[in-house]
Amino acid sequence: MKKLKLLIILCILGTSLLFSTNVLAFQVNDNQVVYTNKKWMLEFTGPVGYDDLTKQAIIVTDSKGAKASISLQLGNDNKSIIVYPPAGGYIAGESYTLKVGKQVHSSKGTQMKQDRLIHFSIEKISKIEITSTSLLSIDGGTTGKINYKVLDQDGNDITKSTTANNLTFQSGVGTAKGSNGVITIASPFISLNTLKSVQITILDSNNGAYASGIYNVESFEVK
Fold first, then answer.
1. Second label for 85, Cα 20 to 30 Å away, from 5, 38, 174, 187?
2. Which residues of the chain have pLDDT under 70?
3. How much is the pLDDT for 171?
4. C-alpha triplet 110, 113, 114: angle, nearest 5°
5. Where is the SbsA Ig-like domain (predicted)?
């Protein structure tokens, strides 16, 4: 009888793992750093027996062995299972293990030969840098722009990741908003061109990482 095979696709990361019960060894990109709302897609080579036995065999535990409150959904093709993160996402900086137990079986009752484990950790903002040396004033001084960068616990640039979406931006003048590595200062009542410098602060309230400094104002005029 043909053994059940499992293909786990790491969503977003684009890495795939082929698990075969015909051999004991298998290749896997383990210990990945993923974002807090990571969704896992488990794809099988045939229809899945999506019953309580299969559901109970798929669990996620944290570094202390506590089970995460994940939820499962059978794919439209009946050959895949989607593993959704807990409500509110995984805990930033925490390490987890996704276990696909051998009790997972096909619609004909054929089980996997052994358990499969995937270890992963969640992105955590460990450092914030303001990369520009000055605040660029545009639109006659009503707007200013300055660049920043966000790094995770492994030094990876996660500026455009969803993990970096909840930063707080503050400015000594006007209002400050940031996204994808660019802070925009809106100052409709005080022209930035009349100021020598502006203080700018970026704060991650979840982990305490921050960047702050006073930056000279440089005017940019379109000729």
1. 5
2. 1-29, 221-223
3. 96
4. 135
5. 30-121
Tokens encoding 164: 């970096």
**In whole angstroms, how far apart are CA 97 and each of 22, 62, 66?**
24, 6, 10
The H-assigned helical ranges of 49-177 are 52-56
Label residues 94-117 b or e (16+ Cβ within 10 Å = b).
ebbbbebbebbbbeeeebbbeebe
Amino acid code (one letter) for 174: G
**What pLDDT was estimated at residue 135?**
97
Residues in the chain: 223
Q: Which of 170, 189, 166, 190 is nearest to 179 (CA)?
A: 166
Q: Which domains does the chain have, with CATH numbers?
A: 6-122 (2.60.40.3710), 127-219 (2.60.40)
Pairing of strands 134-138, 210-219: parallel
At 125-154, the pLDDT tens digits run: 999 999 999 999 999 999 999 999 999 998
The pLDDT assigned to 5 comes to 60
Longest dimension (CA), the chain: 79
Give the 3-state secondary structure percentages of the chain, helix then strand then coil, rounded to 5: 5, 45, 50
